[in-house]
Amino acid sequence: xxxxxxxxxxxxxxxxxxxxxxxxxxxxxxxxxxxxxxxxxxxxxxxxxxxxxxxxxxxxxxxxxxxxxxxxxxxxxxxxxxxxxxxxxxxxxxxxxxxxxxxxxxxxxxxxxxxxxxxxxxxxxxxxxxxxxxxxxxxxxxxxxxxxxxxxxxxxxxxxxxxxxxxxxxxxxxxxxxxxxxxxxxxxxxxxxxxxxxxxxxxxxxxxxxxxxxxxxxxxxxxxxxxxxxxxxxxxxxxxxxxxxxxxxxxxxxxxxxxxxxxxxxxxxxxx
Length: 272
Known about the structure:
The chain is mainly α and about 270 residues long. The chain is built from ten helices and two strands, in the order E-H-H-H-H-H-H-H-H-H-H-E.
């Protein structure tokens, strides 16, 4: 069981930011904007899933996980609110979020199923966000040149994703979820995530007038496929999820703890 702290980020997202806020790099800006576009609907799904799953537990296991789930819900609710503000700025720039309606339509297919399906999908997605978080925290060059308040936003979010990386997984295990479905949801979530983030990134680049620009493709190839690229680095920790003895806490989390410790002035504590 982990103690999760709910924090309020001290960053002003009411003020507009540059169209290419990621150091002038059109691809990196479009990619991170795409990620943000998925967060509010995804985080609401995670909140609803763990709440419903917790209610299904017997009294003893429910009491053991209740505080952690409450902290998880508080953190995700804060992420949802912050990224809604971020996305409002994107909408003001003329960006159209096509990922969100696709995600909502897909999530409706889970309506009426055993809550363990929802928690399994949440655990799989949380693993993806946790390993992406570790990538960002270990490689600050991914946000090189970014507007300082937005760089703080993404690293704070990454640190908290790393912090609560095992909550949904532990809840799924406590609910008696089987291993076949745990692995199957990772495959489903991964395919949907990769397709959706690339589609939305391309749409964002097209809106920016940089979809067919050579520097966009060069940046994308380096960021995703380079020697230290996202897809190469994440391949091994992603595959680890399929192992019978997998647990999220075996993949670290120290980087997130260090960032939160070293950047305490960027947020205030709301609750523990």
